[in-house]
Amino acid sequence: MLITSNRSVAEWGTVFADPVVATAILDRLLHHSHVLTIRGDSYRLRAKRKSGLIKTLTAGDGPPVGSASLRPATGGNNLQPRS
């Protein structure tokens, strides 16, 4: 099964309007799962940058717009945002 989201796991409590339900869903989804983290720009974002619709970032500009911000799950409570 493949699940994608543009929301971080920390936001799922507000997405489902109930943190307990979000925790239960994540518990069942992540039990015995392998979590793959995808980083970088999508093909659409790359095409927009190539065409000049979006400026190319320099080192001091921060993270790329639209880049994946998911992190691998490492046990414990995955609903808490990491710093």
Summarize the structure.
By secondary structure, the protein is mostly helical. It has helices at residues 12-15, 19-30, 43-51.
Q: Please state the CA-atom Rg, rounded to the nearest Å.
A: 16 Å
Order of helices and strands: HHH
Dominant shape:
elongated
Q: Which regions have little confidence, pLDDT < 50, spanning 5+ residues?
A: 67-78
Helix run count: 3
Average pLDDT works out at 75
Category from helices, strands and their pairing: mainly alpha
Q: Gap between N and C termini, in Å?
A: 29 Å
Q: Note the quaternary state here.
A: single chain
Name a few traits of the molecule.
83 residues; mainly alpha; 3 helices
SSE topology sketch:
Blueprint: H1 12-15, H2 19-30, H3 43-51
Description:
The two termini are 29 Å apart. This protein has three helices and no strands. Helix content is 30%, strand content 0%. The protein is mostly helical. It is elongated and about 45 Å long. It has helices at residues 12-15, 19-30, 43-51. The protein has a domain at 9-61.
